[in-house]
Amino acid sequence: MAAERPLRFNVGLQRFSKKTRGGLGGSTVGAGRTFRSAANSLVDDYAAVLKLIKFANVPAVKFALEPVLDQALIYVPRDTEKLADSGFLDVQQKGEITTGEVGFAPRGNPDYAIFVHEVFAFHEPPTQWKFLQRAGQEKLSEVGKRLIGFLRLP
Predict the structure, then answer these.
(1) What's the rounded mean pLDDT across residues 44-54?
(2) What secondary structure letter does DSSP report for 23?
(3) Is the pTM of this model over 0.90?
């Protein structure tokens, strides 16, 4: 069994079957693979913060990650509001380990989330593709500062 990662970024389904792919076509697999690679790279950028997140309490991690979701909600395209409404921040305690997840389209709803994130298309500013990835990159230093401040570490 793989170790639980203390931080995840998620946009809908990244693993697709014929049933979940529906009418979205074969490119869903490629979009999912591209997003997962970018999300893993972003988590690697958070390496120093991860050491704190793993052992911080739920309120501290939630407080620290809120700016990422808030910024992603500014960037997420809003044609129907379904994608924006699906934004979430989930923080859980699993034994002694705290995990945090920021994302959109939990359980793959809406099913087009991964395409809006991964496929370049013009969106009326400030909305844009790569909305979660960009928010995560922009808010990295703020997340660390907020976590340390909440925990009142020297």
Answers:
(1) 82
(2) G
(3) no
- Give the pair of three-digit tokens for residue 146: 């907020």
Q: Which tens digits make up the pLDDT trace of 89-120?
A: 999 998 888 889 999 999 889 989 988 988 88
Model confidence pLDDT, tens digit, residues 58-75:
999 999 999 999 999 999
- Three-state secondary-structure class, residue 9: strand
Domain limits of the chain? 7-149
Q: What are phi and psi of 122, to 5 degrees?
A: -75, 135
Q: What dihedral do alpha carbons 102, 105, 107, 112 form, nearest 10°?
A: -140
DSSP character for 139? T
Rounded mean pLDDT of 107-136? 91
Residue-by-residue DSSP string for 40-97: HHHHHHTHHHHHHHTTS-HHHHHHHHHHHHHHHHHHS--SSSHHHHT-EEEEEEETTE
Structure tokens at 99: 């995990």
